[in-house]
Design goal:
471 residues; alpha/beta; Alkaline Phosphatase, subunit A; 2 domains; ten-stranded mixed β-sheet; four-stranded antiparallel β-sheet; 11 helices
């Protein structure tokens, strides 16, 4: 009888324990954050108030910084668009997944093909119960299998192509790449306003229909990419404050301020729906600013398209109320691909172990001040295999190998070596004075290049999906 009673008690205890585990598991499900990633296009490191700009106003991105953390040594995975976007969604270096360069409409000018076999960030989140949406610029393929709704996003409202030739008519080479899911659409309005409105609509609709389900929203603006076309009212407001500013700078600053206002509307939507505290927000850029249209990359050398700091170092802000200390900053050196495991861990999903990115979550939560030392690598293809440019960083040293010119000199002749600790603005090339160090850095670079140089960046027919062969 006693044994029976003990058995009954044990069953009750085990049952209560199982129920408690179910409750805890359900509680974990309930507290998983919404994930909002906002990506600007060609935004310079110094073109935000919270990163030192004094000639433009970005109060809403500044708010994210005030309420969250700035990462001061954050790098894009490439100085141009598509590769960085591939790294964000895969957690790999871009050449590993077949995107060493920009994916474009015409096959003769397109330098990437996203490997269809690689599972993307939204796939992992969807399997964990997240609703996944992309609003804005995709830029990783023009047709199946490389369109958002075939790569893990349950909802897509945006632009498939690389850039718009006009912010108002939304065409590229005369082609309309605007889609809602896979349906071609042709709405009126400035692209930044459309993307903002669509993001707000998605958040409201999700909150109304699936209030207990977390969402992942990837909001990718094409601002402030060329052509620099701010709405007239935004430009007039800027001119009133800065009547003596050069026209080029006025237009770019107005376009950035207009994007910031849109981000403010998205943040206000979170506020109105009571979602602010349950939403982790990341803001960054896909590469540095384009200097010839007036971008400000802060103190860093050069800009978009180059492997100098101005081309790859980008602003980055992350906010998660009551999790990330407000008005904090980190000196940790990180890359776009690190967002992949970071977001998965924040969502309670164990990241795959084969990816190149490392989680920044301990940094964000104040549980670590830095990451383990690692070598960092950048690649860009433009033109053909002779058009590769590279950079590699080990500790404080950085080697840059620009794409060769028409010179017949060996590629290595163009290598440049910098000590970023003593010379953060890359003014003094150490290559002539440090032959031994130069040789070691070259060896590291060559070893890294060998790992992926044969990864295909075309499909089997030599064309990316949706690409148009030259006539």
């Amino acid at each position: 009888m006693l044994c029976s009673r003990i058995g009954i008690v044990l069953c009750l205890v085990v049952g209560m324990g199982a129920a408690w585990l179910v409750d805890v598991a359900q509680a974990d499900q309930d507290v998983r954050p919404n994930l909002l990633v906002i990506l600007a296009d060609d935004l310079g490191w110094g073109d935000l108030g919270c990163f030192g700009s004094s000639d433009l106003q970005t109060p809403h991105i500044d708010r994210l910084a005030r309420e969250g953390m700035r990462m001061l040594n954050f790098y894009a995975n490439c100085p141009v668009c598509s590769p960085t976007r591939a790294s964000l969604l895969t957690g790999y270096y871009p050449d590993v997944v077949g995107v060493p360069g920009v994916i474009r409409t015409h096959s003769w000018n397109s330098w990437g093909y996203l490997n269809p076999k690689v599972e993307l960030l939204p796939n992992f989140l969807a399997k964990a119960g997240y609703d996944t949406a992309l609003v804005g610029k995709w830029h990783l393929g023009l047709d199946r299998p490389n369109i958002p709704t075939a790569r893990g996003f349950t909802y897509f409202h945006g632009f498939l192509g690389d850039m718009m030739d006009d912010y108002w008519n939304h065409r590229r080479h005369g082609i309309n790449y605007l889609r809602e899911n896979e349906q071609e659409i042709d709405p009126p309005g400035h692209a930044t306003d459309l993307f903002t409105e669509w993001a707000c609509q998605y958040i409201r609709r999700h909150h109304q229909t699936q209030p207990n389900r977390p969402f992942f929203l990837y909001l990718a603006y094409n601002a402030p990419h060329v052509p620099i076309q701010p709405p007239e009212e935004a430009l007039n407001r800027y001119r009133q404050r800065h009547p003596d500013a050069p026209e080029k700078r006025s237009k770019l600053a107005a376009l950035i301020e207009h994007m910031d206002a849109g981000i403010g509307r998205v943040l206000q939507t979170l506020d109105e729906l009571g979602l602010t505290e349950s939403t982790l927000v990341v803001f960054t850029s896909d590469n540095g600013g384009q200097l010839d249209v007036g971008a400000n990359n802060g103190p860093w050398r050069s800009g978009k398209g180059t492997m100098y700091e101005g081309g790859i170092r980008v602003p980055m802000v992350v906010r998660w109320p009551n999790k990330i200390q407000a008005n904090s900053q980190s000196e940790a050196i990180a890359l776009t691909m690190d967002l992949f495991p970071s977001l998965l861990e924040a969502a309670g999903v164990e990241p795959p172990t084969d990816r190149d990115g490392v989680s920044l979550l301990p940094i964000w939560l104040g549980k670590a001040e830095d990451l383990l030392a690692r070598e960092l690598f950048w690649v860009r293809l433009e033109g053909n295999k002779a058009g590769f440019s590279y950079a590699i960083r080990r500790g404080k040293y950085k080697l840059i190998r620009p794409a060769p010119t028409k010179s017949l000199a060996p590629i290595e002749v163009f290598d440049q070596l910098y000590d970023l600790e003593a010379d953060p603005y890359e003014k003094q090339d150490l290559a002539p004075q440090q032959p031994q160090l130069l040789s070691e850095m070259r060896r590291l670079l060559e070893n890294r290049i060998k790992k992926t140089i044969d990864v295909p960046w075309r499909d089997e027919q030599g064309l990316g999906p949706g690409e148009i062969a030259p006539q």
